[in-house]
């Protein structure tokens, strides 16, 4: 699974979890959850530990953990509730690791319920989702088009429907990409330069390595381009689209590109990127706790000379000082966006035509972030969306959309 195109608390939790060692088997923790002698408070601590295993990958929602109560549930009912409440498919691997059985009946029950949810979506929205399946990739005369992985509508039908409603309300064209293996299409799709060319970089990020499930989720970029009819220029530079922000002859990338391309001389790498992307390259520091090191999780362009990002005064000293040097060197203005602690990815919004779609989390900082964006983009329409279920997977709107013109 891709990403975290942002400095998400979820990502931080994943990184911490991967540092643990000598963990007990998952089945041991699951058995402890069923221990009638424990309090629900003690079970919640066990659930937190279980959530940190790679197989679960922090997909058990914080609210679920905080409200967890065993009641009279046995192992099968408990496992189904955990999976159902947190949109975790009870795969054979999960079932075997937790209760020692592949539980095909549990998986069937889970999938049938998801199908019923999909069928309960209002007909107009359902028809809209299905109607774009056959849309052929085209950029001529279309204006800006928002592309999403087909897996977004399959895995998150309600969230996808909410996004589609907003796009349709503002007459934004959209379509779905075939042949993808995860929803994070921003990262593996080509980057469109300001002249209109598509540059397809190598997609082999280090953060997907060492985890079989994640490695198998890596999309074959050449195959994705082929099945969607995309004519792109291929480069052997290893670079995710989430780490490229382009505006008026400038591109911002984080210094993660250097570790991902250690076989390149740094100066030559920057020069080659400048030639391919047809713009000046600005390198910003990646945040240490951000698993992907993507630029779009740290800042966004307002215009050529203005960027916005999480409030600098509240950032880590090393990152704040690194950004201050970049700001001074390139004559940039920096707009502070308030964030909740742990950080919300307020800059991971979708920007298309005159529309900005901002993820919100039901917190006071949401309104502050909307106000900041309205001041920064007075000529844009700002819409908000609940994208929480996708956020728990480690990314948000910019990560799950690919905008072309």
Layout of strands and helices, then pairs:
Blueprint (H helix, E strand, L loop, with lengths): L8 H11 L6 H8 L6 H12 L10 H5 L8 H12 L5 H8 L4 H17 L2 H9 L13 E5 H6 L1 H13 L3 E5 L7 H4 L2 E2 L5 E5 L9 H5 L4 H7 L5 E6 L6 E3 L2 E5 L1 H5 L5 H12 L2 E5 L14 E5 L2 E5 L6 H14 L2 E5 L12 E3 L2 E6 L3 H13 L4 E6 L1 H4 L10 E3 L1
Parallel strand pairs: 1-2, 4-5, 7-8, 10-11, 13-14
Antiparallel strand pairs: 1-15, 3-4, 6-7, 9-10, 12-13
Helix pairs in contact: 2-3, 2-6, 8-10
Key features of this structure:
405 residues; alpha/beta; three-stranded mixed beta sheet; 18 helices; 41% helix
Residue-averaged pLDDT: 84
Enumerate the strands of the largest sheet in spatial order, edge to edge or round the barrel: 2-1-15
Low-confidence stretches: 1-21, 120-136
User: How would the global form be characterised?
Assistant: globular
| Beta-strand content estimate | 15-25%
DSSP E strands, number: 15
Helix content: 40-55%
- What structural class should be given to the helix and strand makeup? alpha/beta
Main sheet summary: 3 strands, mixed
Number of helices: 18
Radius of gyration: 22 Å
Ends: how far apart? 27 Å
Task: Provide a quick synopsis of the model.
The protein contains 18 helices and 15 strands. The protein is of the alpha/beta class and 405 residues long. Helix 8 (123-131) crosses helix 10 (157-169).
Describe the structure.
This protein has 405 residues and is an alpha/beta fold. Helix content is 41%, strand content 17%. It contains 18 helices and 15 strands. It has helices spanning 9-19, 26-33, 40-51, 62-66, 75-86, 92-99, 104-120, 123-131, 150-155, 157-169, 185-188, 212-216, 221-227, 256-260, 266-277, 317-330, 364-376, 388-391, and strands spanning 145-149, 173-177, 191-192, 198-202, 233-238, 245-247, 250-254, 280-284, 299-303, 306-310, 333-337, 350-352, 355-360, 381-386, 402-404. The strands form 5 sheets. It has a 3-stranded mixed β-sheet. α16 (317-330) links the parallel β10 and β11 (333-337). α2 runs antiparallel to α3. The longest helix is centred in the N-terminal third of the chain and has 17 residues, at 104-120. It starts with 8 loop residues before the first helix and ends with a strand. The model is unreliable at 1-21 and 120-136 (pLDDT under 50).
């Amino acid at each position: 699974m891709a990403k975290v195109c942002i400095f998400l608390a979820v990502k931080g939790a994943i990184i911490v979890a991967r540092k643990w060692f000598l963990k007990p088997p998952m089945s041991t923790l699951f058995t402890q959850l069923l221990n009638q002698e424990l309090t629900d408070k003690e079970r919640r601590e066990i659930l937190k530990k279980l959530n940190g295993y790679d197989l679960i990958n922090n997909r058990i929602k914080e609210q679920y953990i905080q409200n967890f109560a065993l009641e009279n549930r046995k192992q099968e009912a408990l496992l189904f509730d955990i999976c159902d409440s947190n949109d975790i498919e009870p795969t054979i691997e999960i079932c075997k690791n937790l209760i020692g059985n592949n539980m095909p009946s549990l998986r069937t029950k889970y999938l049938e319920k998801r199908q019923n949810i999909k069928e309960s979506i209002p007909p107009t929205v359902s028809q809209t989702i299905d109607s774009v399946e056959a849309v052929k990739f085209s950029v001529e005369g279309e204006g800006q088009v928002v592309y999403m992985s087909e897996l977004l509508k399959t895995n998150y039908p309600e969230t996808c429907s909410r996004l589609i409603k907003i796009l349709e309300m503002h007459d934004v064209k959209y379509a779905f990409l075939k042949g993808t293996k995860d929803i994070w299409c921003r990262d593996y799709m080509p980057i469109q330069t300001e002249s209109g060319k598509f540059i397809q970089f190598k997609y082999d990020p280090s953060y997907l390595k060492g985890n079989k499930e994640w490695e198998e989720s890596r999309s074959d970029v050449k195959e994705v381009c082929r099945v969607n009819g995309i004519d792109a220029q291929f480069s052997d530079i290893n670079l995710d689209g989430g780490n490229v922000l382009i505006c008026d002859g400038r591109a911002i990338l984080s210094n993660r590109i250097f570790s991902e391309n250690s076989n390149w001389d740094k100066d030559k790498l920057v020069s080659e990127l400048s030639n391919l992307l047809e713009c000046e390259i600005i390198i910003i520091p990646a945040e240490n706790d951000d698993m992907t090191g993507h630029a779009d999780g740290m800042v966004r362009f307002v215009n050529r000379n203005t960027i916005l990002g999480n409030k600098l005064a509240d950032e880590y000293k090393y990152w704040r000082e690194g950004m201050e040097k970049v700001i001074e060197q390139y004559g940039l203005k920096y707009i502070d966006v308030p964030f909740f602690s742990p950080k919300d990815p307020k800059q991971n919004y979708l920007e298309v035509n005159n529309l900005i779609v901002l993820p919100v989390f039901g917190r006071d900082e949401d309104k502050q972030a909307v106000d900041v964006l309205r001041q920064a983009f007075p000529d844009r329409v700002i819409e908000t969306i609940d994208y929480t279920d996708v956020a728990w997977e480690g990314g948000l709107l910019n990560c799950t959309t690919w905008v072309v013109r």
